[in-house]
Specification:
Length: 143
Amino acid sequence: MGCTGTCPSSRGSGEQREDYWKNRILPFWQNNWPKSRDLVADGIAQDLACLSIAARGEFPAALSMVFSWLKPIEYPDYVVHPLYESGLCTKFPEDALRLLDALIGNPMWVPSELKDCLGQIVQGALHLAQDTRYQRLIVYVRR
């Protein structure tokens, strides 16, 4: 299961997604989401990553909100693919790198579009090519 269809905000135009994030997801997160991180699991981390991607223009705010719930996941391709397709790596390169670094530990195979995401990140912010998170991921891609 990937990001497509897993998040209510993954449907509709970009503006509707951003409004959905601001008016539905954010209040739910602030008022109802459990505060205990003992519940962190691969599925939750993946879904929260997808939720932040689906927020589009609110991606940095969404990522900041869910970041402490993220952890390396077994199948990061399910997040890397929609991240790549979203164009967020170029628009918000620092946040995209932060997301990838949090989710990609040492999975069995390299997500097929990770190299492309990293290329978009550097296109959006050339200085990130020197970032240790970027360096770790690019070495992983080259293995």
